[in-house]
Each structure stands twice: as structure tokens, then as C-alpha cells.
């Protein structure tokens, strides 16, 4: 049974410490039954969430009318579920956004307690709505691209009155990484190149367009540009490289 953990996390999983050494008996039993339900990520849906956690990309009262309008535009282009279970096929899909994805992956609830239980996603860890990163990602699987609607809150200041370059880089990494993960499964950012073209005022609502450039072996290349919502103004351009990893990579295994 514990061989499951070693196989799934890689041969050096948790650096040679066995789960029995780390966990009380009861917790270990729960972890084991959770792991038994986890399938290798490559063989399950690339978005393998099971329960109904809070989706942080739902509209809220901090959203400006402009943010809401663009959201409504893309939401109307999305797949829908009807009451008789027959969905309407449309090209776009709204991706949910959680503050701890591992917790909601099938079988991940106990794993999330074992690995840095208090960790939270960088872009979803401020309680006050609208203060930092308000965003929602829509993906178009056929065209292998996505659009993120991003409203930059006042706590993201860099140059006075304007959004910090690191906050913009964070959003580009997040959006391009989301697309790469959607298309290629588990990945990590290997390279991110950013050209800042115009300063972005705080409270701006912008679009982050990202598209697949190419996939070569384990490498997924994504291009990205940040524009005003009417696309007349260019704020930022970027290219990103993501490398596919095994889950064990995060625990020190090279397999
Ligand atoms: C929902 C929110 C989504 C958020 C997404 C955000 C994701 C992140 O921010 S991840 C955090 C930041 N990134 C990291 O910490 C990654 C640190 N780096 C690493 O772990 C490793 O270097 C890693 C995984 C990128 C590559 O290592 P490894 O798996 O050993 O791959 P390796 O064999 O060296 O390289 C594979 C290929 O990629 C290429 N490559 C690797 N790194 C780079 C690089 N920096 N530049 C160009 N090419 C590279 C190699 O040349 C090789 O190419 P080829 O197939 O042609 O031979």
C-alpha cells in the first residue's frame, strides 16, 4: 500500500521518510484510502476536481461594471448545462479558480493536510475582495488559447498609481501556466520573458490573451499579450516556456 505513495510521488518521495513516520495511525489510514483513489494525473481529466469548493473567479461586488461586462460577454460563449442534462456545445469554457487546488483534486483532501497545510495560492490569499487580484480565465480548447479578465486592485501598486511589474508578471505566469497545464498536464514554468509596453493604472480592467505557440517533447511554449478590454491599448507582451513534470519532481525525484 505504501508502495503507492512511493510510486506516485517518485522513488525519493518525501525524501525517504515513510508516511508512518510522519503521521498518526488514523491520518495514515485516511491518506492511504485517498491515495488509492488517485489515478496518475496523465490518465485523468486535466481538470480533475471532484467536490464543490469555493470558486474565487465568480463575480463579486468589487467587480467594476467593465469587469462584469467582459465576464458576461465570454460567459455567454461558454458551454452550458441544461436541466435535462443536455449541454449546449460552445467553444469557450470558464475555468474555476481555487485557493488550494490540491485539496479539491480527487483524493487530495488528506494530501493537502500533509503537504504545507497552511499554503494558499499566491493570487487568491487576500480576503478583501477587489484589493489585489480579481480575475477569471476562459479557455478555448479547440483554438488552444485562453483569455483572462483581470482587475488590478489598489494593493498591487508599483510605480505610484500604477500596477507593480511583478504583479503583472504573476498574472502572466498564472494565465499562461493555466493554459499550459490545461493542454499538457502537470508543468512548471522554466522561462518567462516580458516586455512592458505601457504603464497599467491601478483598478484597470485588462485582458490577458494567451495562446499555444508549439509543443516540443516536454516543452510547451505559450505567447501572451495584455491589452485594454477593447484591445486598442497594448500594456505587455510575453513568451513563456513550461516543462512537463512528474508529480515526483516536486518531491525531489527526477522520474
Ligand atoms: C493555477 C496557477 C497556475 C500557476 C502556474 C505557475 C507555475 C509556476 O510558477 S512554477 C514555479 C516557478 N518555476 C520553477 O520553480 C521551476 C524550477 N525549475 C525546475 O524545476 C526545472 O529546471 C524544470 C522542471 C523547469 C526543468 O527541469 P527538468 O525536468 O530536469 O528538465 P530538463 O531535462 O532540464 O529540460 C527539459 C527540456 O526543457 C529545456 N529547458 C529547461 N529549462 C529551460 C529554460 N529555463 N530555458 C529554456 N529551455 C529550458 C531543456 O533544454 C530541455 O529541452 P530538450 O527537450 O530540447 O532537451
TrEMBL record:
<dbReference type="InterPro" id="IPR029069">
    <property type="entry name" value="HotDog_dom_sf"/>
</dbReference>
<dbReference type="GO" id="GO:0005743">
    <property type="term" value="C:mitochondrial inner membrane"/>
</dbReference>
<dbReference type="InterPro" id="IPR052365">
    <property type="entry name" value="THEM4/THEM5_acyl-CoA_thioest"/>
</dbReference>
<dbReference type="Pfam" id="PF03061">
    <property type="entry name" value="4HBT"/>
</dbReference>
<keyword id="KW-1003">Cell membrane</keyword>
<keyword id="KW-0053">Apoptosis</keyword>
<dbReference type="GO" id="GO:0005758">
    <property type="term" value="C:mitochondrial intermembrane space"/>
</dbReference>
<dbReference type="GO" id="GO:0006915">
    <property type="term" value="P:apoptotic process"/>
</dbReference>
<dbReference type="GO" id="GO:0016787">
    <property type="term" value="F:hydrolase activity"/>
</dbReference>
<dbReference type="GO" id="GO:0006631">
    <property type="term" value="P:fatty acid metabolic process"/>
</dbReference>
<keyword id="KW-0963">Cytoplasm</keyword>
<feature type="domain" description="Thioesterase">
    <location>
        <begin position="161"/>
        <end position="231"/>
    </location>
</feature>
<keyword id="KW-0276">Fatty acid metabolism</keyword>
<keyword id="KW-0443">Lipid metabolism</keyword>
<keyword id="KW-0378">Hydrolase</keyword>
<keyword id="KW-0809">Transit peptide</keyword>
<comment type="similarity">
    <text>Belongs to the THEM4/THEM5 thioesterase family.</text>
</comment>
<keyword id="KW-0496">Mitochondrion</keyword>
<keyword id="KW-0999">Mitochondrion inner membrane</keyword>
<dbReference type="GO" id="GO:0032587">
    <property type="term" value="C:ruffle membrane"/>
</dbReference>
<keyword id="KW-0966">Cell projection</keyword>
<dbReference type="InterPro" id="IPR006683">
    <property type="entry name" value="Thioestr_dom"/>
</dbReference>
<protein>
    <recommendedName>
        <fullName>Acyl-coenzyme A thioesterase THEM4</fullName>
        <ecNumber>3.1.2.2</ecNumber>
    </recommendedName>
</protein>
<keyword id="KW-0472">Membrane</keyword>
Amino acid at each position: 500500500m505504501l508502495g503507492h505513495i512511493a510510486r506516485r510521488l517518485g522513488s525519493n518521495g518525501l525524501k525517504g521518510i515513510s508516511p508512518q513516520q510522519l503521521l498518526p495511525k488514523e491520518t495514515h489510514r485516511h491518506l492511504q484510502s485517498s491515495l488509492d483513489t488517485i489515478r496518475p494525473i496523465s490518465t485523468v481529466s486535466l481538470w480533475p476536481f471532484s467536490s464543490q469548493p469555493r470558486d474565487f473567479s465568480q463575480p463579486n461586488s468589487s467587480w467594476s461594471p467593465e469587469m462584469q461586462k467582459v465576464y458576461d460577454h465570454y460567459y455567454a460563449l461558454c458551454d452550458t448545462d441544461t436541466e435535462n442534462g443536455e449541454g449546449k456545445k460552445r467553444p469557450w469554457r470558464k475555468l474555476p479558480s481555487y485557493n488550494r487546488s490540491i485539496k479539491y483534486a480527487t483524493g487530495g483532501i488528506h494530501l493537502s493536510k500533509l503537504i504545507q497545510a497552511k499554503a494558499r495560492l499566491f493570487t487568491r490569499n487576500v480576503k478583501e475582495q477587489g484589493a489585489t487580484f480579481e480575475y477569471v480565465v476562459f479557455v478555448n480548447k479547440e483554438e488552444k488559447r485562453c483569455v483572462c479578465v483581470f482587475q488590478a486592485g489598489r494593493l498591487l501598486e508599483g510605480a505610484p498609481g500604477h500596477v507593480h511589474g511583478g504583479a503583472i508578471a504573476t498574472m502572466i505566469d498564472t494565465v499562461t501556466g493555466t493554459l499550459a497545464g490545461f493542454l499538457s498536464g502537470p508543468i512548471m514554468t522554466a522561462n518567462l520573458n516580458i516586455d512592458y509596453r505601457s504603464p497599467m493604472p491601478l483598478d484597470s480592467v485588462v485582458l490577458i490573451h494567451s495562446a499555444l505557440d508549439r509543443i516540443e517533447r516536454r516543452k510547451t511554449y505559450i505567447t501572451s499579450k495584455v491589452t485594454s478590454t477593447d484591445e486598442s491599448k497594448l500594456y505587455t507582451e510575453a513568451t513563456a516556456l513550461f516543462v512537463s513534470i512528474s508529480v515526483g519532481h516536486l518531491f525531489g525525484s527526477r522520474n
